[in-house]
Amino acid sequence: MGVQQVEPLLVPQAPDGGYGWVIVFAAFMSNLVVDGISTAFSEFKQSYKERYQESDGLTVFIGSLIIGTYLLVGPLVSALCNKYEQRYVVMAGGLISGIAFMIAPASPNIYVFMLIYGVMGGLGFGMIYLPAIVVVGFYFDSKRAMATGISVAGSGVGTFLVPLICQVCIANLGWQKTIWVLAVMIFSCVFYGYLYRPLPMVDLNEIRDQEMEPLRQALSKVEDDEDEAVESPHPNRSTSAASGAIEDEAVSQNPEVQRLRSILTEGDEGSETPKSDAHKVRSHTATRSRKHTMTSNSGSQHDLKLSRGNLSSDNRLSRVSARDFNQSLSKLSKSGGASNLSIAMSGVDPKEFQRPMNRQDIFYGGSIQNLKEFKEEGTMAGYRASTLSIPRSVVGQAVSQLNLSRTGSRLGGPGIAEDEEEMIEPFVDDGCCKVLPLPMRNALSEMIDLNLLKNKTMMILCISNLLGMMGFYIPIMFLKDLSESMKLDMSLAMFLVPIFGVFNTIGRVFFGWLTDQKILSALTINNLSLIVSGLLTLACPLLTSIAGQYFYAIVFGFIISAYICLTSIVLADLMGLENLTNSFGLLVVARGIASLVGPPFAGIVYDITGSYDTAFYFGGLVLLVAGLISATIPFVTKKDADTADLEEEKRKQKQNGVVEEGNEMDDNIPLKSLKNN
Fold first, then answer.
1. Does 292 reside within a domain?
2. Is the pTM of this model over 0.85?
3. Does the N-terminal or the C-terminal CB of the chain have fewer CB atoms within 10 Å?
4. Spatial distance between the Cα atoms of 497 and 490, rounded to a whole number of angstroms
5. How many CB atoms lie within 10 A of CB 620?
């Protein structure tokens, strides 16, 4: 049996600069167009109302429809990005929205206008907006927080610039032609999408070796220092030997040295290239505990059988990490090292790992160095190998295309025994929506898996965001109308929304920095943002001067930015990085529903009361309640943690025979593991 040649695992390598800054520019401009046009609705509201002679509540639904649609289609757009390149998704989105804006002014009534402008335009906006988040995460790892901060700042800049452009164009061209001007801006996103070129692929082992080399040199220097300490001349040789042994032991027991050796050990184990004996870990070195991999676990055949499960199952798809996959290929490449599972893995196309939704941190906008997953791995290559994974359904599909009873002889390894043939069942895909490719269905299943709502923290977050997003857009859409009802100088009031955009951009940068300082948790900042914003909005109708309205626009724009920009960090902290994609998808859907409902409801309130004050009271109230609801999360998580600790202690006591049988009978609390995400 000879050594088998297997295709190396190629993964996208983030350049953390270079062409990545072109990507940041393209994402910045995409966010500028999408959010700038969305928040510029207030400049068109009166024109729409006069053109179609409809109520305030129905007219506002136009603006909320485009925002709600582009948020609601997030999971679908993620599925498209998982199957096709992001550039093609963005280019298609630019064409769809651009065409919608070109033909919308010809609509005979408001309902056709809402369908074309709101639904069709919103669909295209969703295809532009979400890839702008994904692609920045692809190009940046160590500098991701800064790159993401710059790209999302386009939203604030757009909120400042686009309303001003619309004001000038409406005054000189009319609202219909102004929408055509916006259509030209949207068509420019086709060019920005073209800039989203795929990342070059690099062998995962090469990345690991590059990162490990400085560590090996550092460890080699430490070991040389140990040897010099032992061999140094001393008048009393026995004392010298003893002191050298003590120094050797002290250095070896140094936590930093142990961690360095542990990282090197794991790096060498995951690499196909054997390392020299000089870099092997000494027998007394304490190593970090590692998760059982599919290749090292004695139950791997059982895992393989489960991998061919029903795609329509309520359980979320389990996954195979890049580390496990790479180790399987490594075993297959070694003489006599091929196992049933390793051969099965060889049938998987390594390009599956290049799909964006197969990265746990694809929606994470904070600093990767702050993640516990990165701190546990110690290196970027190790972190990427542990957080990059594919659904086991992909493995099952690949297995169904292999005849493993014959594969053994074809690969030069042993054939599969008869008692193992039952493990090679045909892959049965009886899930719904078979017309969609498997990568799209996997992405949809990952993003909108409702099982996560069984988690109390996730349910509280969804309720909080439903209320929070209902109130978020109300000031943006009605602030100008409120000033007009107060009979303020409209030549000054026209700058209120742009001023909001400026300080919203400043706030995103500031709160991103504040979160990195670890002074307050992201959740605490988020909760304070909602509560303070709610109180400000409640007080806004009482600020009856233009200076008061400017004060509100400045402070509200600055404070509420934390609610938007810290979303992914809050989710990663509370739900864990492994649940970030799922929780982000559910939250986007919740926010989309809220965006559809909130502003129209405020418009209906105005139609009933004839006062915009009531609309602001409603918006402020839901923001305040959203913050108070979210503030209960620390108490809920603490209670769940205490319950989990108590049950774990009881389980250990039962295993050790400490708890008496009579007490067990009286204990009605079921002993089960609680999933704290």
1. no
2. no
3. N
4. 12
5. 23
